[in-house]
Prior knowledge:
This protein is an alpha+beta fold. The chain has helices at residues 12-24, 62-72, 85-97, 103-112; strands spanning 4-9, 32-36, 38-39, 42-43, 76-81, 101-102. The protein has one domain (4-40, 60-112): Alpha-Beta Plaits (2-Layer Sandwich). 42% of the residues lie in helices and 20% in strands. The chain has a 4-stranded antiparallel sheet. A two-stranded antiparallel ribbon has the order 3-4.
Amino acid sequence: MSHEVVRTYDRLGDAxxxxxxxxxxxxxxxxxxxxxxxxxxxxxxxxxxxxxxxRSSGRADAYDRNYAQVAxxxxxxxxxxxxxxxxxxxxxxxxxxxxxxxxxxxxxxxRRT
Length: 113
């Protein structure tokens, strides 16, 4: 069973602070992964946004339904590879308290609409 925790942030500094909090709370540095599509020029708009639009009929395609909110949210991704369910809950609590956006909740709520 996967115990991965995935969150996005709008600002790199917030994600870096959350990473430091995880590390100071005992999470192993090899289990905490931070990636960003932001550089000095601003966010990168690559293939992640391809197909994220409306079809000519006005209906949203599957990509739009599943990932529109994620694409429009933060461009900084923080992932924790938790060893078990308890560590997963601890990591989720730390990240949620830091103002992170839960990618999986956005995905499941988008599918219900």
